[in-house]
Amino acid sequence: MQIDILREAYVTVNILFIATKEKDMGLNSSLRLNEKIKQIRRAKGLSQAAVAEAIDRSEMHISRIERGEIECKGELLETIKRVLGIENAPLSEQEVEVYEGRLWILNDLLNANRVHEAREMVNTMPGILDLPFEKNLIFIYRMHESRLTYKELNPAKGLEILEDAEALLKEMDDNANIEALHLYYRNKAYYTGSSHRFKEAIEYYLKALSYESNKLQFDPAIYVALALSYYNIGKPYFALLYCMKAMENKNFDITNPTYLRIQSTYARCLFNIGLISEAIKMLEDMVAKTKTYNDAMSKNIISQAFITLIDCYIGKGDYDKALTLCEEALTNTKKENNTGSYLQCLAMKILCAMKFKQHKQCIKLIKEGLTIAQEDSQESYIMWFKSLNCLVNLKDASSVDFLENEAIPFFRDAGLFPYVLTICRYLEEYYKKNRSKIKALNIVAIIRDIYQEIHYSEQKAQV
Q1: pLDDT above 70 for 4
Q2: In this structure, are residues 386 and 405 in contact, taking their beta carbons and an 8 Å threshold?
Q3: Helices (DSSP H) in 44-154: which residue ranges?
Q4: Distance between CA 64 and CA 87 in Å, rounded?
Q5: 144: buried, middle or exposed (CB in 10 Å: 19+, 13-18, 0-12)?
Q6: Which residues does 427 contact at the CB level (< 8 Å), separation at least 6?
């Protein structure tokens, strides 16, 4: 019992210390307590007489409180808050300071992927929503809530919270502080990236980093996300640089999902620059060590590592091994919880089936993948499964036309160069077989242009 009391006292002191250290950050409203009480009373449609009667004081007493002539604290403040219906809202200066400190503790919990603890904390903090003048605090609370919901694998709800908060950001205009803007652009990047709009996501991540402050502790997750975005647009050297930036934290626990994501992304980059054997070794070690992990986020990352391992074996030309891994991945990946990973596994199985000329199997898998992608409004995957359907039916002139005039421009514009390169290699082989040398050379020119674009942009890579 005494230990619990001491622990609670320690947390409170720690919160107050953080809040005091950050007191000049400008998070909270500049309104004095008496002005806050007056604003809330009016917003609730209560008269001074009604409040006075409810707390057994005179109307003049309430008037003097609202003018700042009588100090409102302790039991009197709690009684007034109860009458105003804002019992859990941080109204006094000390309450606001404690609330600010809790917001940054919540931020640290999210950085550490301690999702369950973060959810418990968020559920105790919505009282701030009763105070419309605390715009920065409300906005930061909403950003944490949105990010937490994303980590709980409910991106639709998280995006809804983010979009609702954008209206508040517009109201704040130039009064939004650095921390609020950092959290906003980071969240925008998460949701943009999850929609496969990786170029936009990179812009948002870089903007978030431009708003970093001393209070926002080093968060390797943002650098890993940048690395993944660069990887997905075919820029592995940029991705490697951001992986190395993320690994500046030397105290990672191997069970930390962020550590797993760094390892997985680093292996992907090794594969993308041709170090396939090194990537396979790294990924197989990672998958072997993490098979017993049960939390949703770790499972999601391991699923991505598994997909990269399949990609490695396809790149190595070992389609038998790749197909075996595809079967295992599809068995372990639930499409209800992880649609993106499931669709990636399906697409890779199709590429393996194409190699073994299993035409009926390919058509069946393409139909399944296209249906899921359309139900989930996954634009990139819809285009990819349509492209795979055309690759399976490459002798058809309309398929070739679709690949050249729709699929390649779509993926190039989206920066999804790996998809472009896969299509181009099949088209190049097709044209060579049909002795269409000029068309084959045109495809080779596209491949060369993409590699030049990657190389040129990465010559200027700076972190």
Answers
A1: no
A2: no
A3: 48-55, 59-66, 74-84, 93-111, 115-122, 135-151
A4: 22
A5: buried
A6: 394, 400, 403, 404, 439, 443
Is the pLDDT score of 20 beyond 80? Answer: no
Which string of b and e fits 193-217 if b means at least 16 CB within 10 Å? beebbbbbbbbbbebbbebeeebbe
pLDDT tens-digit series, residues 344-373: 889 999 999 998 888 899 999 999 999 999
Residue 1, pLDDT score:
40
For residues 205 and 222, the answer to whether their CB atoms sit within 8 Å is yes
- DSSP, collapsed to helix, strand or coil, labels residue 154 as coil
Q: Residue 189 half-sphere exposure, CB side, CA atoms within 13 Å? A: 26
For residue 338, the surrounding DSSP H or E stretch is: none
Residue 189, CA distances (Å) to 19, 164, 201 in order: 28, 16, 4
- pLDDT tens, residue by residue, 176-196: 788 888 999 999 998 998 888
- Integer-rounded Cα Rg, in Å, for the chain is 27
Q: At what angle do helices 296-316 and 257-272 cross, to 10 degrees?
A: 10
Amino acid, single-letter form, for residue 410: F
Token pair for 117: 């603890």
Give pTM, 2 decimals.
0.66
| Domains observed in the chain | 13-193 (1.10.260.40), 393-463 (no CATH)
Alpha helices in 333-378 (DSSP H): 339-355, 359-375
How far is the C-alpha of 114 from the C-alpha of 116, rounded, in Å? 6
pLDDT of residue 114: 86
Do residues 32 and 65 lie in contact, with contact meaning Cβ atoms separated by under 8 Å? no
